[in-house]
Each structure stands twice: as structure tokens, then as C-alpha cells.
Design brief:
globular; Metallo-beta-lactamase, Chain A; 3 helices; 12% helix; seven-stranded mixed sheet; alpha/beta; 13 strands
């Protein structure tokens, strides 16, 4: 599995010939969008900064788009989406996604605005391998709340998102909660199941493409 970060909450995950993308910006967004073909696109929030699934058709790839709560199966990948809340640009409905790729459990919190999660979600939050958590200001979780929630969920790897760049004070505050002053961003994260052994809440910062 190879994970790359394309800014805000836009991620590309590739394993074999399958490409999964999260929250690509649309053409109307002020945030730039990378062009590549995706098999599956997951959208957490119906806003131009996250709902650009039409930008990820390329060649013979036409993505299957998931844009809300429910259970889905595509290409033998099982996805569960759960209702949560957001404060991003006056949008209220955010979807938290759980999926398993290459025997690794992924949780993508999207533009989550409150750390107060429903009981249904809490019951599903066991054994998270990779957690994508938003850090920001009033529009998503602030850095301290994001860190506390991430630690509480006990993932093996924590990937922060939604900050502007690696000099953003929100990111620095988030890292300082773990006692980290500086953390060199990785160009990409390459993982196999065996790489998660003995990892416990390790924070990984990815460089923005």
C-alpha cells in the first residue's frame, strides 16, 4: 500500500492496480486537484473542497463514488460510512469511513467538527491501523481535541490532515501534544501489514504533492 497526500484532505491510496481516493477538491475549489484515475472515491462532505470526484476519471478508470453513510462493497473492498457532524463552511453532515485494504483497517474522519462521537461509531472503532485525523481551527477539530481523540482511538499510525503546510501552527501544536518539536514530512508512506507490528500511535506527516 502506498499513501500520498495531495493537500487539505485529499489522499491517494494505491495497492496493486486499485486506487482509492479521499476528498478530492472540485474544479470550483480554490485548492488544487491532482489528476489521476481512481477506482473508488470517498467523499466525506458535500462541499467543493471535497467533492471533486469528476476530476478523477482518467483513461479507462471511472470511479465508483461513495458520498454518504451506508455499507458498500466494490472490487472486494468493504466500506462503511457513519454519520457525524462538521462545521466546515456551514456544512453539518460529515461521513466517517472505515475500510479494510490489504488486511489493514483504515479510518478516515473527514471534516469532523466534534470529538463527541455516536455510540455506533465508538463500537466500530476497535483495531484501527491507520487513522486520518483533521486538525485546524473552528471548522474542524482543533489540534488539542484532534490529538486527544486520535490517542483515544488507539490506532497504530496517525496521519494528520487539513492543515495548510508543514509550518502551520495547527500542525506544530498537534505534534507538540506528543512532545514532538520537528518531524520531517515523508514524500509517501509505503506499508505492508508486517510494518505495523509494534507500532502504537506513531504520527506520520506526509509532504503535500
Amino acid at each position: 500500500m502506498i499513501i500520498t497526500y495531495h493537500g487539505l484532505e485529499f489522499f491517494k491510496i494505491q495497492f496493486g492496480d486499485i486506487i482509492v481516493a479521499f476528498n478530492p477538491p472540485s474544479k470550483e475549489s480554490k485548492f488544487k486537484s491532482s489528476r489521476f484515475g481512481a477506482d473508488i472515491v470517498l467523499i466525506s462532505l458535500n462541499h467543493e473542497d471535497f467533492n471533486g470526484s469528476d476530476t478523477l476519471s482518467y483513461g479507462d478508470k471511472m470511479p465508483f463514488v461513495i458520498n454518504g453513510p451506508g455499507e458498500y462493497e466494490i472490487k472486494n473492498i468493504f466500506v462503511k460510512g457513519f454519520f457525524s457532524t462538521s462545521s466546515y463552511k456551514d456544512k453539518k453532515i460529515n461521513t466517517i469511513y472505515f475500510l479494510k485494504l490489504e488486511s489493514m483497517n483504515i479510518c478516515f474522519l473527514g471534516a469532523l467538527g466534534s470529538a463527541d462521537l455516536s455510540q455506533e461509531i465508538k463500537e466500530k472503532m476497535d483495531d484501527i491501523d491507520i487513522l486520518f485525523v483533521p486538525i485546524g481551527n473552528k471548522e474542524v477539530l482543533d489540534s488539542t481535541d484532534a490529538y486527544k481523540l486520535a490517542v483515544k482511538l488507539q490506532p497504530k499510525i496517525i496521519i494528520p490532515m487539513h492543515y495548510s503546510d508543514d509550518k502551520d501552527p495547527c500542525l506544530k501544536t498537534f505534534l507538540s501534544e506528543e512532545g514532538i518539536k520537528n518531524l520531517e514530512p515523508l514524500d509517501k508512506l509505503t506499508l505492508k501489514r508486517k510494518d505495523l507490528v509494534n507500532k502504537d500511535g506513531e504520527i506520520v506527516v506526509l509532504a503535500q504533492k
